[in-house]
Design goal:
Elements: E1 5-6, H1 27-40, E2 45-47, E3 57-61, E4 79-91, E5 95-101, E6 104-113, E7 116-122, E8 128-134, H2 135-148, H3 159-174, E9 183-184
Parallel strand pairs: 1-9
Antiparallel strand pairs: 2-3, 3-4, 4-7, 5-6, 7-8
């Protein structure tokens, strides 16, 4: 089932998420729905807060990025589920790359991130794993992990860039946009009919 994606301005995108356990209700169905939602929206990652759930879960599929990174063939098979992930180390000289976000449609910016990370998480079968990721795989995981901490890629912008993007972000938060995928917007009580 395709789920609506939460738009910029919704408080769930700014919350630090909670860990889950094996007993989380209908987890496998949720994971399947997240993949369907991500593919429908042409994304390469989707974090639970982006569908309104403040839990430590995200999914990735790097295959669509292979055209932008021919020197990273491992992206083609980089389809994973990350449950209760922790980035335990980041290393290397930060490098800029253009990022976007399904919760912030139409806005893309260069973000500096370190090229090597070590991440510990539980996979879909509840096996604990620790992996060293590099390049775009590291970047995708860092972006999605940020969602679990209440951080958005726009938070890395300079003060001037934040000011320049403010109008667009306000339009997104009000729902004054047209997207090819379903979205949900936060409305204050005064805005409700």
């Amino acid at each position: 089932m395709i789920l609506p994606i939460v738009a910029f301005g919704h408080p769930v995108l700014r919350q630090k998420t909670e860990k889950i356990d094996r007993e989380y209700p209908d987890l496998e169905v949720l994971i399947e729905n997240m993949f369907e939602t991500m593919y429908h929206a042409s994304g390469v990652g989707l974090a639970a807060p982006q569908i309104g759930l403040s839990i430590r879960l995200f999914i990735v599929d790097g295959a669509p990025m292979i055209d932008r990174a021919a020197n990273e063939p491992e992206l083609k098979t980089f389809q994973q589920v990350f449950i209760n992930p922790e980035v335990i180390e980041e290393d290397g000289k930060p490098w800029a790359f253009e990022e976007g976000c399904l919760s912030i449609p139409g806005l893309r910016e260069n973000v500096n991130r370190k090229p090597l990370i070590t991440v510990r998480y539980w996979d879909r079968e509840w096996n604990e794993r620790t992996e060293l990721l590099d390049g775009l795989r590291a970047r995708i995981v860092q972006h999605e992990h940020d969602h679990l901490e209440g951080v958005l890629f726009t938070d890395y912008s300079s003060p001037l860039k934040k000011q320049l993007n403010n109008g667009k972000l306000q339009r997104i938060s009000r729902g004054d946009i047209v997207e090819d995928y379903p979205m949900t917007y936060h409305r204050t009580p005064k805005q409700k009919a």
